[in-house]
């Protein structure tokens, strides 16, 4: 039965309030409140928002009202799994295509899945829902689904997948745990993926040796970057290269939660080094490389949300190294899950701690 009842959200103030940054004060305004474990956000051309809640709800929020969108996939909402990322296709204005990542129930547990569907003209339902990719076999653990999806300029899709808590699997290319996969818009494997035709290796893999990448985004040159959860210390920012091995769990700047060392140290030939790492861990989730006009002083900077310490990390990428130059924090930045650039150059971010989506403007 179609759900026709709009769910009222809390009323927010018409105007926002100031939040201090190193480049001056900005205005932060709540644009959706009363959310339950929000995970991903995207702005539609009409200014309304699509928001995922981890328990499986897809919401469209407009003018202070929230409507549950029908037709979202059934999810295995357990642990860190559920309904997760929700970017729009680059050609959304003509195709109405929305991408969704979620934890899909299957034999043996659940796996990260990428789906596509078309949003109806009235924004009330998803049509033609289909899976483009499902990581199989399923795994019984409820963690490390990764689950960001990024569309490249050529239309291919990068999907991040965590090691699912099975550390050695991130080095085993016969499965997809701890990998970034790349697929075409129809779900097929691109012929120029690095391991196509290699015996015993999953052809979807673009890079591997990742622990749990929950942030991903493109820079102005189209290069893919990720923010990844380490263990105890060692959260990483990585510039992703085709066919590269990012080392987990052989090398790491973190340690096990017991205090024991991980793998063989911090470096090994043939394994990539992070461009930046945090110690102590910040639990990074959501990554934006800003390219808009509203904040020209931030253009080219990276923004990463912290789930653990409640701030937005701003990182300078202008030199050979990536370095954190600011921690933007306030009452609004409680457990930042996602951060995206809106079409007008404003910035949207999700605070899980407040159950709120905020907009940052001048």
Quick rundown:
This protein has 362 residues and is mostly beta strands. It is 1% helix and 38% strand.
- Class by helix and strand content? mainly beta
Strand segment tally: 25
Quaternary state of this entry equals: single chain
Q: Characterize the largest beta sheet: strand count, sense, and whether it forms a barrel.
A: 5 strands, antiparallel
Give me the strand/helix succession. EEEEEEEHEEEEEEEEEEEEEEEEEE
Q: Work out the strand percent.
A: 35-45%
What is the typical, i.e. mean, pLDDT?
93
Tell me the helix content. Answer: under 10%
Shape: globular
Description:
The chain has 362 residues and is mostly beta strands. It has 1 helix and 25 strands. The strands form 6 sheets. The chain has a 5-stranded antiparallel beta sheet, with no helix packed on it. A 5-stranded antiparallel beta sheet has the order 2-3-25-24-23, with no helix packed on it. The chain has a 4-stranded antiparallel beta sheet with strand order 11-12-13-14, with no helix packed on it. A hairpin with a 4-residue loop joins strand 5 (49-53) and strand 6. The longest helix is centred in the first third of the chain and has 4 residues, at 92-95. It is globular.
Secondary-structure map:
Layout: E1 6-8, E2 17-19, E3 26-32, E4 38-43, E5 49-53, E6 58-62, E7 65-68, H1 92-95, E8 97-106, E9 109-119, E10 126-134, E11 149-151, E12 157-160, E13 179-183, E14 205-208, E15 213-218, E16 224-228, E17 235-239, E18 276-278, E19 284-289, E20 302-306, E21 312-316, E22 323-328, E23 336-341, E24 347-351, E25 356-361
Antiparallel strand pairs: 1-7, 2-3, 3-25, 4-5, 5-6, 6-7, 8-9, 9-10, 11-12, 12-13, 13-14, 15-16, 16-17, 17-18, 19-20, 20-21, 21-22, 23-24, 24-25
């Amino acid at each position: 039965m179609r759900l026709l009842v709009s769910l009222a959200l809390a009323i927010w103030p018409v105007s926002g309030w100031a939040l201090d940054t190193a480049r001056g004060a900005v205005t932060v305004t709540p644009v959706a409140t009363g959310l339950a474990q929000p995970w991903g956000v995207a702005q539609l051309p009409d200014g309304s928002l699509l928001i995922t809640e981890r328990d499986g709800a897809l919401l469209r929020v407009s003018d202070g009202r929230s409507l549950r969108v029908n037709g979202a996939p059934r999810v295995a909402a357990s642990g860190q799994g559920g309904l997760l990322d929700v970017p729009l296709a680059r050609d959304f204005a003509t195709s109405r295509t929305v991408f969704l990542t979620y934890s899909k129930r299957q034999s043996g547990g659940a796996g990260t899945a990428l789906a596509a569907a078309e949003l109806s003209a009235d924004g009330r339902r998803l049509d033609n829902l289909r899976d483009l990719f499902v990581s199989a076999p399923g795994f019984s653990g409820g963690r490390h689904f990764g689950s960001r999806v990024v569309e490249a300029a050529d239309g291919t899709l990068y999907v991040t997948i965590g090691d699912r808590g099975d550390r050695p699997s991130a080095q085993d290319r016969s499965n997809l745990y701890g990998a970034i996969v790349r697929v075409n818009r129809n779900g097929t494997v691109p012929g120029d993926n690095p391991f196509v035709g290699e015996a015993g290796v999953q052809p979807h893999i673009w890079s591997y040796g990742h622990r749990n990448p929950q942030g991903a985004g493109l820079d102005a040159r189209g290069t893919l970057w990720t923010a990844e959860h380490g263990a105890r210390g060692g959260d990483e920012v990585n510039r992703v290269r085709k066919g590269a091995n990012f080392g987990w769990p052989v090398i790491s700047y973190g340690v096990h939660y017991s205090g024991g060392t991980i793998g063989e140290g911090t470096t090994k030939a043939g394994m990539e080094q992070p461009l930046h790492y945090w110690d102590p861990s910040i639990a990074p989730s959501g990554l934006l490389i800003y390219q808009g006009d509203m904040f020209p002083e931030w253009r080219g900077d990276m923004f990463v949300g912290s789930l653990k310490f409640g701030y937005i990390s701003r990182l300078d990428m202008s030199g050979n190294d990536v370095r954190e130059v600011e921690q933007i924090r306030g009452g609004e930045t409680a457990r930042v899950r996602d951060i995206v650039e809106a079409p007008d150059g404003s910035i949207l971010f999700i605070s899980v701690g407040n159950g709120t989506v905020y907009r940052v403007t001048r």
